[in-house]
Amino acid sequence: MNYSVAVFAGIGLLLLLAIAWLAFSETRRKTKVIRNGHGGREGLHISHLPQIKQALANSDFMYLKEQGHPGLAKRIRTERRRIALRYLTCLRVEFERLLYLARMVAVMSPHVPVAQEIQGLRLNLEFSYRYYLIFFRLVSGIAPLEDIGNLSDMVSALTVRMETAMSELGEQAALGAEFLPHNGGGLDTGG
Amino acid sequence: MEILWAASFIVQLALCGILIKLRHFRRLPFFTAYVCLNVAQSLVLYPIFRYYGINSHAASLVGWWSEAITLLARLFATVEILHLVLISYRGIWGLAWRLLAGTSLVVLVCVCLASRERPDLALMRADRGYHLIFAAALISCLALIRYYSIRVENAYKVLLVGFCFYSCVKILLNTILYDFSYQQHHSPDAFIWHIVVVFPYLIVVLFWGVALAHPLPEKRKEVVLPPSIYQRISPEINLQLQAINKQLMNFWKIEEPQQ
Question: Are the beta carbons of B248 and A130 closer than 8 angstroms?
């Protein structure tokens, strides 16, 4: 079969799959997470930061090893790695929540500069790529747990700033939240 | 063939009736015009096909010219529906039409580059190129709508997906029936061509009819924030995202020697 026939047939099939996905895929989980999420500061991961940092500290494992309990140290390390993974997932949820707020502001704005949105999209993609890189390294056991704390600090700072900024939206933001998709958004949400 | 044509004609006529009876033409004037043009195309082509034959030069000439007109009408109808979906979101509509124009331009260049050979297939390739541009631009726009979690009412969703589905099918049919057939040194039969083209369109029109059998949703109220809020918050978020990404990058670099 000729090269161009294969290419065009492939493109046609890909476009068909893309439209099927856009039309029938489920509602994005992000919006559900946001709606079910806590609105107050107590719901933010920052309030759990000291505990998580303590759990991620390397000193406990060192101490157990020095005391002659390598088995226990290994078990605790495994458990804490699991906690770290959950924490990383929470960071992502929070990150997505902030991105959602940014999108909400864009949706309600009368003028949305293309460059600004492209930058936001690019940064989001970069974050996703690096997040999964760290995630898989953590799963495989080659990432030092305590360094996740730095990532946590960054997301926390963003959260605090965004919360402050969003609170300034006042009534309009509340109206906007009503105005935005009630049923989870996306193409699959109509009627 | 004639049964399929008759069925297609009746279904299109019924869709016209729905558009007029439920007064959808007020909200969807270009879409109504597109459906009416399709009915008119069938009315013009049928006697020509009967009198001159489906493989005749006259049939080909009238067929392609009428097709060009309906394709133009379809473009206007699609933009009209997208505008209705995004009418309450001025900023996103601004992004969407730029995306439509940008995607169309890029795909147009690609299609022109890929279709330089075989001038005897120019018409078919122009038709395929149009559908490729149309589908790619529409899918990009729908992806944008999804990215911003904008709600698309069922009726509009069915119309847009129908347009896109038909274009994708046309790309595949053009490629397989014409391109591949010519490579096997025989031209496809116009009779078969018309059957495989009319059938998916009939399905699409049926779905459109069902979707439009109900009143169209009311226009949503536009909520607009002062531009200063976006200008203040969005760069702030992007700066923070950049900082987080840098942190992640550093995180990776720190670990490298430990491997």
Answer: yes
CA distance A113 to B101: 16
Question: Which parts of A77-138 are beta strand (E)?
Answer: none
- Mark yes or no for CB contact A127/B91 under 8 Å: no
Q: What is the pLDDT of residues A140-149, one digit of tens each?
A: 766 555 556 5
d(CA B149, CA B144): 9
Does A79 map to a domain?
A: yes
* Closest Cβ–Cβ partner in B183, B217, B252 for A133: B252
Q: What number is the average pLDDT over the span B31-38?
A: 94
Task: Round the average pLDDT of chain B to a whole number and report it.
Answer: 82
Say if A5 falls within a structural domain.
Answer: no
Q: What is the pTM of this model?
A: 0.74
Asked whether the beta carbons of A96 and B213 are under 8 A apart, the reply is no
Number of domains present in the structure of chain A = 1
Identity of the residue numbered B62: V
- Is A167 an interface residue toward B (CB < 8 Å)? no
Task: Considering only the beta carbons, identify the residue of A111, A120, A189 that sits closest to B241.
Answer: A120
